[in-house]
Amino acid sequence: MLSGSIPPGLLHGSFQFLILSNNRLTGQIPVDYAHGDIDTIDLSHNQLTGDTLFLFDIAKPMTKIDLSWNELAFDMTKVRLPYHLTYLDLSHNHIKGGVSKSLKDIKLRYFNVSYNDLCAHVPSALGDLSMLETIQLRRIPGLYGSIPSTLDKLSRLVLLQISDSSVSGPIPEFLLKMNLSALAITNSKLTGSIPQFLSHLPNLRYINLSGNKLTGSIPPGLLHASFRVLILSNNHLTGEIPEGYGNDDIDTIDLSHSQLTGDPSFLFSTTKPTTKIDLSLNMLEFDMTQVRFPYHMTYLDLSHNHIKGEVAKSLRDINLEYFNVSYNELCGEIPSGRFMASHGTDSYLHNKCLCGTPLPPCKKW
Fold first, then answer.
1. What predicted TM-score, i.e. pTM, was given to this entire model?
2. 146-164 pLDDT tens trace
3. Which of 79, 258, 292, 342 could hold 100 in an S-S bridge, CB 3.0 to 4.6 Å?
């Protein structure tokens, strides 16, 4: 693990690479690296400080710049990206301003300015990056406005990720023009319903729209391909969960903190590959007694619903790291043995008439 500052003049000749990531380097980046013929510069995961604007210029031959996870501070509005740049990661710094508008015709494929102090609309200039495959704008509270229509030109885009922002408005229909496999817009201010047209994105396998103000029902058929993830928690969704999701190859389902109704027991089966299900804080109703849960499940939260019957005996064979059925209408003796011993009192609180370990013993009549 290297420490200290970066010495100037380390590189010579053409086609230079400077990769000093994952160390404990401190201080500022020497200005003379602005004049080298550098193709790749990766100084990520250090403790570097200062202004690095001198590294950016449209005429430079750089194809990759990774300065993430440092303490760099500069105004990104003034950045002029190298024409041949394909990879830019400036995340986890103290960068201010807005996103540079000098993006037209840049060959960028990966763009990440997450965890910074930017304050601007979602940059419409990103639509000029026709080769772009990944956009990550996470944890930028100063990011606001709707998703700009200029992004409809990003036909190669695979991942769109925005989180902890003030991005607002409906989910735009022009997302259909993209090649999305993952859509994550979370803890923001999206409104309206989840549009059915998302089901027409043939490669979409990961959706996370949690923590918004979305209303209406959950459309069927949103996910495709393998290792699917459906996270729609902390919205104002209503209606029943479409039964088609019971036939899908879904790893994670989180529909918690909404107003969903109906019987979701079709989601459970011993042969399903699901590892996490969170349906807590809804108005779901079913009899749990005979339900058989997926063997590979590690997380199950059904708390704060209207679940009846007994705690399913099939849970004895499921090695759950987290289990919660509190605040329901369950009754009878809690099954014992095998993996049930790892669940404490909090897992069962505020039910109708549950008894047995870890709760008080059942009464003998």
1. 0.95
2. 999 999 999 999 999 999 9
3. 79
